[in-house]
Amino acid sequence: MNFSKKLHVLLTNDDGIESAGLRYLWEGLKDNVDITVIAPDKERSGSGAAATLDRIVITPTSWYDTTTKAYKVSGTPVDCVRAGLSILLPTPPDMILSGINHGTNSGRTIVFSGTIGGVIEGVLRNIPGIAFSYWNYDTSDFGHTAKYIWPIVDYLSKQTMPHGSFYNVNFPKHLDQEIKGLKVVPHGFSNWIEQPEPFPSEEGHYSMRGVWVDHNEPEGTDVHYLKQGYVTASPIHIAQLTDFAVLDNHKEPFERSFQEHLKTPLFMH
């Protein structure tokens, strides 16, 4: 991308319209781009690429200034992006930015992240995107993220990304301390794992919040560098879903095996 006009970006998230992360994502961009905020009306963490197939409710809402248009949606981040593209915006945005998530989306967490789900929905429609996450839950600390947003968006908005690709950006835990730099790296292997906790007074009811489980991360992954105090940026590709190595290995024997079963008495008419 290389825009002579001012960028127009759609902001969304999975922590909800009132989250600190969304506010500071806006804070980091408001002086440089035109912004429309379309975010869930409540927390939708872990919603991945889930979408509502029935009714959603879109409600205009006030924002921290009078010029930014903002809407809350009774749905997931994907619903928010769909509402923006098919209902609210007269033309598609130049980019879709999601976050800043409360907690890291490094390692394998990208599979179920609602923050990333919103970006994927745009990428599937050929709209570039970036997901932002912060390895911190202390909302009073989120203000430290804002100054790092524009340098990242400014650079990536001028690049041409292949169809199906986007960037996943993670901030390390202590942004109040000196940041060592940014590393463009692959994803690691660590993950959030569920830790069920029963509700004492409600039989069969469980909290399914997760705990972070560290794998033995090789040097060079996003998790490795986050622990060293770097911001990480990982390019993700989602358009080519087929595993062609497996396809080549299994195609003929799998098809032949199934065809042989069709010759057995069970399938004879």
Give an overview of the whole structure.
This protein is α/β, with parallel strands linked by helices. The protein has a single domain (8-190, 217-241), classed as Stationary-phase Survival Protein Sure Homolog, Chain: A, CATH 3.40.1210. Helix content is 24%, strand content 24%. The chain contains 6 helices and 13 strands. It has helices at 20-27, 77-88, 114-123, 146-156, 222-227, 244-261; strands at 8-12, 34-40, 58-61, 69-73, 95-102, 129-134, 165-171, 182-184, 191-194, 197-198, 206-207, 210-213, 231-237. Strands 3-4-2-1-5-6-7-13-8 form a 9-stranded mixed sheet. Helix 2 (77-88) runs parallel beside helix 3.
Shape, per Cα inertia axes: globular
CATH superfamily (homologous) name: Survival protein SurE-like phosphatase/nucleotidase
Discrete helix count: 6
Percentage beta strand:
15-25%
Question: What key attributes describe this structure?
Answer:
nine-stranded mixed sheet; 269 residues; Stationary-phase Survival Protein Sure Homolog, Chain: A; single chain; 6 helices; alpha/beta; 13 strands
Task: Please sum up the structure shown.
The protein is of the alpha/beta class.
What's the topology here?
Blueprint: E1 8-12, H1 20-27, E2 34-40, E3 58-61, E4 69-73, H2 77-88, E5 95-102, H3 114-123, E6 129-134, H4 146-156, E7 165-171, E8 182-184, E9 191-194, E10 197-198, E11 206-207, E12 210-213, H5 222-227, E13 231-237, H6 244-261
Parallel strand pairs: 1-2, 1-5, 2-4, 5-6, 6-7, 8-13
Antiparallel strand pairs: 3-4, 7-13, 9-12, 10-11
